[in-house]
Amino acid sequence: MIAKVGTIAPKFTLKSKTESGLTDVSLSDYLGKKQVLLLFVPFAFTGVCTDELCSLSGGLDVYSGFDAEVIAISVDSPFAQEAWAKQNKITIPLLSDFNKEVSTAYGVLYGEILGFKGVSKRSAFVIGKDGKIKYAFSSEDPHILPPFEEVKAALKA
């Protein structure tokens, strides 16, 4: 079941890979400081995921105007995510949920899709500075993007 609006967001610490090496990124890094737009995407290097994150990378100023940090999570390795980000100029932090624990905690892990088991559903959560979930969206269809106007409305609230 998807994590519900009004509940405390499941905490996490995941790996991210950049040129400077592997780093840990935690939800707690932002709590009390910024809102978080937490996105789950199925796969690196796929058309819809690349379009989604490239579009968001190009419009990050909109989200910083809401005092929000945008973070994306997939079950890909941090090394694949780094290559994907470099190739496509994705500037959003990409976090590896390789062990599928965070996708499970948020209730957004497919049992199976396209013959693959344990892939994150395309999802979006707005987490307030207080750590509570203000907005939650998850799609059973990996081609359907989150309704970003609703996301922005939740960030404004």
Can you characterise this structure?
This protein is α/β, with parallel strands linked by helices and 157 residues long. The protein is 27% helix and 25% strand. It is built from five helices and seven strands, in the order E-E-E-H-H-E-H-E-H-E-E-H. The chain has helices at 47-58, 60-64, 78-88, 101-105, 148-156, and strands at residues 13-18, 21-26, 35-40, 68-74, 94-96, 123-127, 133-138. The strands form two sheets. A five-stranded mixed sheet has the order 5-4-3-6-7. The longest helix is centred in the middle third of the chain and has 12 residues, at 47-58. It starts with 12 loop residues before the first strand and ends with a helix. The model has no long low-confidence stretch (mean pLDDT 92).
Quick synopsis:
With about 160 residues, this protein is α/β, with parallel strands linked by helices.
Q: What labels describe this entry?
A:
5-stranded mixed sheet, 157 residues, two-stranded antiparallel sheet, alpha/beta
Instruction: Give the uncertain stretches in residue-range form.
Output: none
Strand order of the largest sheet: 5-4-3-6-7
SS class = alpha/beta
Mean pLDDT, all residues:
92
Query: How many H/I helices?
Result: 5
* Helix share bin: 25-40%
Total beta-strand segments: 7
The value of Rg in angstroms is 14 Å
Question: Element order, helices and strands?
Answer: EEEHHEHEHEEH
Principal-axes shape call: globular
In percent terms, what proportion of residues is strand? 15-25%
Major sheet size, sense and barrel closure: 5 strands, mixed
CA-CA gap between termini: 25 Å
